[in-house]
Amino acid sequence: xxxxxxxxxxxxxxxxxxxxxxxxxxxxxxxxxxxxxxxxxxxxxxxxxxxxxxxxxxxxxxxxxxxxxxxxxxxxxxxxxxxxxxxxxxxxxxxxxxxxxxxxxxxxxxxxxxxxxxxxxxxxxxxxxxxxxxxxxxxxxxxxxxxxxxxxxxxxxxxxxxxxxxxxxxxxxxxxxxxxxxxxxxxxxxxxxxxxxxxxxxxxxxxxxxxxxxxxxxxxxxxxxxxxxxxxxxxxxxxxxxxxxxxxxxxxxxxxxxxxxxxxxxxxxxxxxxxxxxxxxxxxxxxxxxxxxxxxxxxxxxxxxxxxxxxxxxxxxxxxxxxxxxxxxxxxxxxxxxxxxxxxxxxxxxxxxxxxxxxxxxxxxxxxxxxxxxxxxxxxxxxxxxxxxxxxxxxxxxxxxxxxxxxxxxxxxxxxxxxxxxxxxxxxxxxxxxxxxxxxxxxxxxxxxxxxxxxxxxxxxxxxxxxxxxxxxxxxxxxxxxxxxxxxxxxxxxxxxxxxxxxxxxxxxxxxxxxxxxxxxxxxxxxxxxxxxxxxxxxxxxxxxxxxxxxxxxxxxxxxxxxxxxxxxxxxxxxxxxxxxxxxxxxxxxxxxxxxxxxxxxxxxxxxxxxxxxxxxxxxxxxxxxxxxxxxxxxxxxxxxxxxxxxxxxxxxxxxxxxxxxxxxxxxxxxxxxxxxxxxxxxxxxxxxxxxxxxxxxxxxxxxxxxxxxxxxxxxxxxxxxxxxxxxxxxxxxxxxxxxxxxxxxxxxxxxxxxxxxxxxxxxxxxxxxxxxxxxxxxxxxxxxxxxxxxxxxxxxxxxxxxxx
Length: 805
Ligand SMILES: Cc1cc2nc3c(=O)[nH]c(=O)nc-3n(C[C@H](O)[C@H](O)[C@H](O)COP(=O)(O)OP(=O)(O)OC[C@H]3O[C@@H](n4cnc5c(N)ncnc54)[C@H](O)[C@@H]3O)c2cc1C
Hints:
- α2 (58-78) packs across α5 and α2 packs across α10 (350-367).
- The radius of gyration is 27 Å and the shape is globular.
- Strands 1, 2, 8, 9, 10, 11, 17 and 18 form an 8-stranded mixed sheet that branches.
- It has 805 residues and is an alpha+beta fold.
- It binds flavin-adenine dinucleotide (FAD).
- Residues 10-16, 34-37, 41-44, 46-50, 173-174, 202-206, 210, 225, 227, 318, 320-322, 347-352 line the site of flavin-adenine dinucleotide.
- The site of flavin-adenine dinucleotide has 40 residues, from α1, β12, β16 and α10.
């Protein structure tokens, strides 16, 4: 057996084999896959093999499209049949809300270049004669959908990988993974030990056990899943061609043709997590005891909607386990906090997603970054809070909601209050409706009473609308206060900190006591962060950024740190705090500090440690609201003291607590983008407009400089713009297509209502030639088209006088 490999992949299911194939295909042939038994010995062998492109995350949908189109290429390369069937897929809606959902999916498909479209219910019955059209309101058709042979696909990847020089070693269980001094891993098996420069955990059903070998707990959970196969159905026999793969959301069932019968699977709400304490090491090519009573209610609904199934005999029932992640998407990439340890786990739809996962993993390893933003799959979107127990609860919730609609304004109930701040109960008593980011609860908006603290899930404006409007008004006209515990705070210290950050950040570093805004770029010039950097003394810096992305940024900082001279800490949970904003915020701050906070005593973009409300604080004079404002960071144990002192001192100033919805409304009115939506690795500094904060001429050779300069010289293909959208009762959220002259030219990255300017606003990327003030577009929103007009200047306080004041 090999004693050294550039990459060792653990697990010969569809995911591991795809990673191996893509690594070898993209030029790394010194790669080895270790499989404890035969290939496909986990979930892969008993999958239903259904393939489809629909996913709420457009980049994952793109990767699903890539996966589906890869199968033919794999067959041609290897001669191994993948058992490809492509009769197309039907998505059926039987409620108006589901129809809205399908309209959104169709809209996304337009800018992804897919041919997904609505067809009549009669046409739908022509594609699947089993459905009863009167039960449905609409049908979306996706021509590329179908199904494949799971075992054939897995073997084709393995064969393709071997073709490009990779090695597959079967009957070789990994029993230890030990980190080495040189940053690699000793991968121990009964057949010997391999020194891996990079280790990939793709152990599917056993990913948790393999993770434990390296000391990590993965928040994923295998779930039992039933499907059944019927005897021949006369309507199928008579149809003459293969019937379309069909998803009936409200019927909670997916179906595809199996010989002359039907395969029907369902996701029961009273779902059963499997092997909670660990997957047995001797589990392999066996199935679980089926229990049709668990799915009988679902089956009755399916029989009503497709009566022919009820008349057919059941030939076979399959109950097999497969692994889910907390939000249903895979967890891939380098694990923050570990060197050269990667995962590709929790891939619950390996036959839809395996190709894309393999491609992104291989690109990321070989080129340092995948070609698209993989945030929706990045393991770094979870952190320490995502324990195995939390993962079990969330993964089960996700499984049971697989065909249940989740609205854009909806926050899901399982695994909540995993992380709370000291103010949680106080804010709840004030009527806070809570959201969650990176495990931490934060207020979205405030209802007048705790009893009214509920938001109707909807695609349209919700009952929160008027309360958010009040919160915005209070912050714009007087003074508002928002908890900012959920911002990320990264501390970088030491004699080498300045040089380190000068290389990582594209802007010039601020002087001591000052703040600077800066993008962080990848070598290809893509955005990897949008941060505010504060310099407290010559060797101490704080970086404030997206709370959701804190682990991704931690990984980036640690991955680029020199061996000596710099220390890095993620202080996000060690610094909570409150931001106050509005024309009367200075008056409020002055009431709770002895320091001079006049406009000359604490200038715009000053940062200083000082005593506020009798507790030690770090005060930064910035505000994401666009108003005069201050961010007051304190240790969590001072949070209550700070809150109470501000509340008391601000009472006669009309101080009002507000939530993140109001903040999002205010930032839109300022044309400011946010991380994970408008700013992310799909875009560059120039495209996003963040090049304003790039110091092209600074002495330090910052990461991404050459790419940023090249972009500046060659011009931009697209640009981020803010648009006023002529709607009456609905606002963009994200991913709505933007049309110009009848062609889809871009898509919305975020949207909402500007409560001060009283207009519906959206941000999105459009071709730069069209990114002119007053340029007119049409945006498709829930099936309707709305006029949208670019406004290059913010509608609110365009010269920024209010925040600089
Ligand atoms: C009933 C059912 C229906 C499904 N239907 C579909 C569908 O229609 N479409 C779809 O896309 N997906 C479907 N799936 C899901 C799909 O099967 C999985 O997404 C996919 O198989 C996951 O592949 P994997 O490679 O991650 O994991 P696995 O298939 O579990 O593979 C992991 C491999 O790692 C090996 N391994 C584990 N530990 C070690 C070790 N220590 N050393 C060496 N090797 C190790 C195992 O032996 C195994 O071969 C279904 C699953 C089930 C159960």
